[in-house]
C-alpha cells in the first residue's frame, strides 16, 4: 500500500465513509499487502484521528466503529 493509499484509508475513516475504507482494504489484500501493515499505517491512524475528533466534540462515524467491534 502506497503512502497515498494509506492517506486515502485514513481520510475515508475520518470522513465516515466505511464503504470506501472497505474497498481500499479489499484492494490492498488482493494486491498482497500484509494486513497488519494496512492496519498499522492506515486504519488505526484514521480511527485514532476520528476518536480524538469525537472527544473534541467534532462529528464522528459510529457505523465504522460498530464494524470494528465485530
Q: How is this structure best described in words?
A:
- The protein is mostly helical and 70 residues long.
- It has one domain.
- It starts with a helix and ends with a helix.
Topology, element by element:
Layout: H1 3-14, H2 18-30, H3 35-55, H4 62-69
Helix pairs in contact: 1-2, 1-3
Please summarize what this structure is.
The protein is an all-alpha fold and 70 residues long. It has helices at residues 3-14, 18-30, 35-55, 62-69.
In the predicted model, the low-confidence regions spanning at least 5 consecutive residues are 66-70
Overall 3D form: elongated
Helix content: over 70%
| Rounded Rg | 12 Å
What is the end-to-end distance? 24 Å
Describe the largest sheet: none
* Average pLDDT, all residues: 78
What is the H/E string? HHHH
Which structural class do you get from the secondary structure elements? mainly alpha
Report the count of strand segments.
0
Give the count of structural domains: 1
**How many alpha or pi helices?**
4
Main traits of this protein?
disordered C terminus, mainly alpha, 70 residues
